[in-house]
Amino acid sequence: MKKEEIRPRVKAWKAVLTDAEKAEAARAAFAMLERHAAFMMAENILMYHSLPDEISTHDFIDRWAGRKRFYLPRVNGVNLDILPYERTSLHLGAFSIEEPDGDDLTDISEIELIVVPGVAYDPEGNRVGRGKGYYDRLLAGARATKIGIAYDFQVVDSIEAEPHDVRVDVVITDRRIFTPRKRK
Prior knowledge:
Structural class: alpha/beta
């Protein structure tokens, strides 16, 4: 399926979710992440600060911030910088996403787990983002485990991937965890 077809379809599904459904989906998905070996073993985790139409990361980050070292991305031109998460040092940045302040940049090689946002995922770990390529550029240099978090309806049968697209290693939804099949 083409990315341009997937984005409006997923947007329509998200629009009908109630606040209670959103909260329950976030609770269920992040409970599964907490039990995943990649999360349990990781100390340095790159998260994203969710937008209102994404499965919410806010409570999860706040709950674990004292026990894990979280990092958030900050838009820098066409790339993402990685900075430590501190609740008190966030500002509204590019695309109305809360981003960290400061100059304490972290190299992607120090990150052990990346929780990747996405509009949709398929069984091979292909991902549809918002279309700017920020995460594909960031993930291209990462050795960390990459986990997509989503509502279950965000998993589609197939995505027409492009050569620059970077797949995720695991997808966790509010209903299931799956490890994408390997490409042949």
